[in-house]
Amino acid sequence: MLSIGQCRLEARVVDITTLAVDAIVNAANTSLLGGGGVDGAIHRAAGRDLLHECETLGGCATGNAKLTAGYRLPAKHVIHAVGPVWGGGGHGEAELLASCYRRSMELARKAHCASIAFPAISCGVYRFPAQQAVRIAVGTVIATLQQTAGSIGHVIFACFDDAMFRLYERELDDRQAPPSKPA
Ligand code: AR6
What we know:
Helices cover 37% and strands 20% of the residues. By secondary structure, it is α/β, with parallel strands linked by helices. Strands 1-2-7-6-3-5-4 form a seven-stranded mixed beta sheet, with helices on both faces. The radius of gyration is 16 Å and the shape is globular. The site of ligand AR6 has 24 residues, from β3 and α1.
């Protein structure tokens, strides 16, 4: 766990569809019409009404995100972020992934969310190297929190397996400021 100002950041091994937070982030594709992985799980748990709202959104560019209601999910909102497909690293993948986290935080703040949970965007079917993705995820969320004091007091990095959880734990630990020396 790590605190940045008033905000708590933590990693958990959990199915993101079970989290009763103000917003969960979906690792979507540009159509926003569903797919496999976490996207499929979110659509299954939210029900058909989520798809109907997504159909009105006109898709979403890579690196961007769009917000919907959560419908039958315990989460109030879903933020559909479109991560880059890993193509070796020379196609702006790192910046596009960072942009997903920035845009998701921005939309969550605009919707007055106090809590948000992220999956490891692009780390499944899109094959982004996990360690680099985790560094970008944590670094971008921290930078966003430092730049704008907003409503968000709790960020959860939802991991599907222990290996991913350990990467987030290490990254959060590494960014913990060293305790100040006694006078
Ligand atoms: N809760 C938390 N994490 C999960 C869950 C879950 N229920 N299910 C999977 N993960 P992926 P991508 C993890 O493939 O790489 C879809 O078809 C998973 O272990 O879902 O961004 C979309 O429609 C991995 O660490 O997303 C797109 O076409 C992470 O979530 C495409 O896949 C992301 O894996 C997007 O690919």
